[in-house]
Design a protein that fits this description.
The chain is an alpha+beta fold. Helix content is 53%, strand content 20%. It has one domain: Heat Shock Protein 90 (2-Layer Sandwich). It has a five-stranded mixed sheet. A two-stranded antiparallel sheet has the order 1-3.
Protein backbone atom coordinates (compact mmCIF):
# COMPACT_ATOMS: atom_id res chain seq x y z
CA UNK A 1 0.00 0.00 0.00
CA UNK A 2 1.46 3.38 -1.00
CA UNK A 3 2.50 6.08 1.45
CA UNK A 4 -0.44 8.38 0.62
CA UNK A 5 -3.06 5.72 1.34
CA UNK A 6 -1.16 4.57 4.43
CA UNK A 7 -1.32 8.15 5.75
CA UNK A 8 -5.08 8.17 5.19
CA UNK A 9 -5.40 5.02 7.30
CA UNK A 10 -3.50 6.64 10.16
CA UNK A 11 -5.77 9.70 9.99
CA UNK A 12 -8.87 7.48 9.85
CA UNK A 13 -7.83 5.69 13.03
CA UNK A 14 -7.42 9.03 14.82
CA UNK A 15 -10.79 10.32 13.62
CA UNK A 16 -12.89 7.36 14.70
CA UNK A 17 -13.06 8.32 18.40
CA UNK A 18 -14.09 11.99 17.83
CA UNK A 19 -16.90 10.91 15.46
CA UNK A 20 -18.14 8.36 17.99
CA UNK A 21 -18.02 11.00 20.75
CA UNK A 22 -19.99 13.47 18.62
CA UNK A 23 -22.64 10.83 18.00
CA UNK A 24 -22.92 10.03 21.70
CA UNK A 25 -23.21 13.71 22.64
CA UNK A 26 -26.03 14.18 20.14
CA UNK A 27 -27.92 11.25 21.64
CA UNK A 28 -27.45 12.56 25.19
CA UNK A 29 -29.66 15.65 24.80
CA UNK A 30 -33.06 15.43 26.52
CA UNK A 31 -36.41 17.25 26.18
CA UNK A 32 -35.86 18.68 22.70
CA UNK A 33 -38.51 20.38 20.59
CA UNK A 34 -39.32 19.14 17.08
CA UNK A 35 -36.84 21.48 15.38
CA UNK A 36 -33.93 20.51 17.63
CA UNK A 37 -34.87 16.84 17.37
CA UNK A 38 -34.47 17.10 13.59
CA UNK A 39 -31.03 18.66 14.09
CA UNK A 40 -30.06 15.84 16.45
CA UNK A 41 -31.18 13.21 13.93
CA UNK A 42 -29.07 14.90 11.27
CA UNK A 43 -26.03 14.97 13.59
CA UNK A 44 -26.41 11.27 14.37
CA UNK A 45 -26.89 10.45 10.69
CA UNK A 46 -23.77 12.38 9.64
CA UNK A 47 -21.76 10.79 12.46
CA UNK A 48 -22.93 7.32 11.47
CA UNK A 49 -21.89 7.85 7.86
CA UNK A 50 -18.50 9.23 8.91
CA UNK A 51 -17.89 6.28 11.24
CA UNK A 52 -18.87 3.85 8.47
CA UNK A 53 -16.38 5.45 6.08
CA UNK A 54 -13.65 5.34 8.72
CA UNK A 55 -14.37 1.65 9.31
CA UNK A 56 -14.19 1.03 5.56
CA UNK A 57 -10.80 2.73 5.40
CA UNK A 58 -9.52 0.59 8.26
CA UNK A 59 -10.70 -2.52 6.39
CA UNK A 60 -8.27 -1.67 3.60
CA UNK A 61 -5.44 -2.89 5.82
CA UNK A 62 -7.23 -6.21 6.32
CA UNK A 63 -7.41 -6.65 2.55
CA UNK A 64 -3.63 -6.84 2.45
CA UNK A 65 -3.67 -9.45 5.21
CA UNK A 66 -6.28 -11.54 3.39
CA UNK A 67 -8.40 -11.78 6.52
CA UNK A 68 -11.81 -11.34 4.88
CA UNK A 69 -13.45 -14.57 3.71
CA UNK A 70 -15.51 -15.03 0.56
CA UNK A 71 -18.84 -16.84 0.74
CA UNK A 72 -22.11 -17.26 -1.18
CA UNK A 73 -24.09 -14.04 -0.68
CA UNK A 74 -27.67 -13.23 -1.71
CA UNK A 75 -27.57 -9.84 -3.44
CA UNK A 76 -31.13 -8.66 -2.82
CA UNK A 77 -31.06 -8.72 1.02
CA UNK A 78 -27.79 -6.76 0.97
CA UNK A 79 -29.26 -4.09 -1.31
CA UNK A 80 -32.47 -3.93 0.72
CA UNK A 81 -30.48 -3.46 3.93
CA UNK A 82 -28.45 -0.59 2.48
CA UNK A 83 -31.57 1.09 1.12
CA UNK A 84 -33.22 0.96 4.54
CA UNK A 85 -30.16 2.56 6.08
CA UNK A 86 -30.07 5.38 3.52
CA UNK A 87 -33.84 5.85 3.29
CA UNK A 88 -33.68 8.75 5.74
CA UNK A 89 -31.00 10.52 3.68
CA UNK A 90 -32.97 10.21 0.43
CA UNK A 91 -36.11 11.45 2.19
CA UNK A 92 -34.29 14.32 3.91
CA UNK A 93 -32.88 15.50 0.56
CA UNK A 94 -36.27 15.01 -1.16
CA UNK A 95 -34.82 12.39 -3.45
CA UNK A 96 -36.48 9.33 -4.95
CA UNK A 97 -34.86 5.91 -5.38
CA UNK A 98 -36.19 3.46 -7.95
CA UNK A 99 -35.24 -0.21 -7.46
CA UNK A 100 -35.47 -3.04 -9.98
CA UNK A 101 -34.45 -6.69 -9.58
CA UNK A 102 -34.24 -8.50 -12.92
CA UNK A 103 -34.44 -12.29 -13.04
CA UNK A 104 -34.50 -14.74 -10.18
CA UNK A 105 -32.62 -14.33 -6.91
CA UNK A 106 -29.00 -15.38 -7.28
CA UNK A 107 -26.06 -16.03 -5.00
CA UNK A 108 -22.74 -14.37 -5.75
CA UNK A 109 -19.24 -15.06 -4.49
CA UNK A 110 -18.45 -12.12 -2.20
CA UNK A 111 -17.71 -10.90 1.29
CA UNK A 112 -21.01 -9.62 2.65
CA UNK A 113 -19.61 -6.60 4.49
CA UNK A 114 -17.43 -5.53 1.55
CA UNK A 115 -20.34 -5.88 -0.87
CA UNK A 116 -22.56 -3.91 1.46
CA UNK A 117 -20.00 -1.09 1.50
CA UNK A 118 -19.75 -1.06 -2.30
CA UNK A 119 -23.53 -0.66 -2.68
CA UNK A 120 -23.59 1.88 0.16
CA UNK A 121 -20.95 4.09 -1.46
CA UNK A 122 -22.62 3.94 -4.88
CA UNK A 123 -25.99 4.97 -3.40
CA UNK A 124 -24.44 7.66 -1.20
CA UNK A 125 -22.98 9.22 -4.34
CA UNK A 126 -26.37 9.14 -6.07
CA UNK A 127 -28.07 11.13 -3.31
CA UNK A 128 -26.23 14.27 -4.45
CA UNK A 129 -27.33 14.04 -8.09
CA UNK A 130 -31.02 13.25 -8.14
CA UNK A 131 -33.33 16.23 -8.59
CA UNK A 132 -36.96 16.37 -7.50
CA UNK A 133 -38.14 15.37 -10.99
CA UNK A 134 -35.48 12.72 -11.47
CA UNK A 135 -34.57 9.63 -9.51
CA UNK A 136 -31.64 7.50 -8.63
CA UNK A 137 -31.96 3.95 -9.92
CA UNK A 138 -30.59 0.73 -8.47
CA UNK A 139 -30.82 -2.24 -10.82
CA UNK A 140 -29.66 -5.81 -10.16
CA UNK A 141 -29.50 -7.95 -13.30
CA UNK A 142 -27.61 -10.90 -14.86
CA UNK A 143 -24.83 -9.87 -17.26
CA UNK A 144 -23.32 -12.88 -19.06
CA UNK A 145 -21.88 -15.13 -16.34
CA UNK A 146 -22.04 -12.47 -13.61
CA UNK A 147 -24.56 -10.48 -11.59
CA UNK A 148 -24.46 -6.69 -12.00
CA UNK A 149 -25.43 -4.15 -9.35
CA UNK A 150 -25.73 -0.75 -11.02
CA UNK A 151 -26.61 2.64 -9.53
CA UNK A 152 -27.65 5.37 -11.97
CA UNK A 153 -27.60 9.09 -11.14
CA UNK A 154 -28.41 12.22 -13.11
CA UNK A 155 -25.44 14.37 -12.19
CA UNK A 156 -22.76 16.11 -14.24
CA UNK A 157 -20.63 14.03 -16.61
CA UNK A 158 -17.99 11.84 -15.03
CA UNK A 159 -14.51 13.14 -16.00
CA UNK A 160 -12.72 11.00 -18.60
CA UNK A 161 -9.70 10.33 -16.39
CA UNK A 162 -11.88 8.84 -13.63
CA UNK A 163 -13.86 6.84 -16.19
CA UNK A 164 -10.63 5.41 -17.63
CA UNK A 165 -9.45 4.39 -14.16
CA UNK A 166 -12.71 2.56 -13.57
CA UNK A 167 -12.52 0.93 -17.00
CA UNK A 168 -9.10 -0.38 -15.97
CA UNK A 169 -10.74 -1.96 -12.96
CA UNK A 170 -9.88 0.22 -9.96
CA UNK A 171 -9.28 3.77 -8.74
CA UNK A 172 -5.59 4.34 -7.96
CA UNK A 173 -6.05 6.71 -5.03
CA UNK A 174 -8.70 8.88 -3.33
CA UNK A 175 -9.24 12.12 -5.21
CA UNK A 176 -11.83 14.85 -5.63
CA UNK A 177 -13.88 14.53 -8.81
CA UNK A 178 -14.07 17.65 -10.94
CA UNK A 179 -17.59 18.74 -11.93
CA UNK A 180 -19.08 16.49 -9.23
CA UNK A 181 -18.26 18.37 -6.01
CA UNK A 182 -20.74 16.45 -3.87
CA UNK A 183 -19.35 13.13 -5.03
CA UNK A 184 -17.08 11.13 -2.79
CA UNK A 185 -13.86 10.24 -4.56
CA UNK A 186 -12.92 8.48 -1.35
CA UNK A 187 -16.07 6.36 -1.48
CA UNK A 188 -15.35 5.43 -5.10
CA UNK A 189 -11.79 4.48 -4.16
CA UNK A 190 -13.05 2.25 -1.34
CA UNK A 191 -15.66 0.61 -3.60
CA UNK A 192 -13.08 -0.16 -6.27
CA UNK A 193 -10.59 -1.68 -3.80
CA UNK A 194 -13.27 -3.81 -2.15
CA UNK A 195 -14.52 -4.99 -5.57
CA UNK A 196 -10.99 -5.88 -6.65
CA UNK A 197 -10.56 -8.00 -3.51
CA UNK A 198 -13.77 -9.90 -4.33
CA UNK A 199 -12.60 -10.56 -7.93
CA UNK A 200 -15.46 -8.37 -9.10
CA UNK A 201 -15.34 -5.93 -12.01
CA UNK A 202 -16.18 -2.34 -11.15
CA UNK A 203 -16.86 0.30 -13.77
CA UNK A 204 -18.94 3.25 -14.92
CA UNK A 205 -21.10 4.19 -17.89
CA UNK A 206 -21.15 7.85 -18.95
CA UNK A 207 -24.62 9.03 -20.03
CA UNK A 208 -25.60 12.36 -21.52
CA UNK A 209 -27.45 13.11 -18.31
CA UNK A 210 -25.49 11.35 -15.60
CA UNK A 211 -23.47 8.26 -14.74
CA UNK A 212 -24.07 4.63 -13.85
CA UNK A 213 -21.59 3.03 -11.46
CA UNK A 214 -21.65 -0.76 -11.39
CA UNK A 215 -20.01 -3.85 -9.97
CA UNK A 216 -20.13 -7.23 -11.73
CA UNK A 217 -19.90 -10.12 -9.27
CA UNK A 218 -19.10 -13.75 -9.97
CA UNK A 219 -21.98 -16.17 -9.48
CA UNK A 220 -21.46 -18.50 -6.57
CA UNK A 221 -20.38 -22.05 -7.39
CA UNK A 222 -22.71 -23.21 -4.63
CA UNK A 223 -25.66 -21.76 -6.54
CA UNK A 224 -24.69 -23.83 -9.58
CA UNK A 225 -24.67 -27.03 -7.52
CA UNK A 226 -28.34 -26.51 -6.71
Amino acid sequence: MDVEVDGILVAAHELKEPFATLRQLALSFDEMNASNEAIREKMVSVSDRAIRQVNDLLRLRRLEEGGLEMEPVAVRPVCDEVMRELEYLFRYNQRELFVKYVGKERLVSANRELLRSVVYNFLLNAVHYTGNEMRAELVVSPVRDRVRIAVRDYGPALPMDVWRELKRGWVEKPTSIAMRPGSSGLGLFIASRFSQYMNANVGAVRHRDGTSFYVDLMKSQQARLF
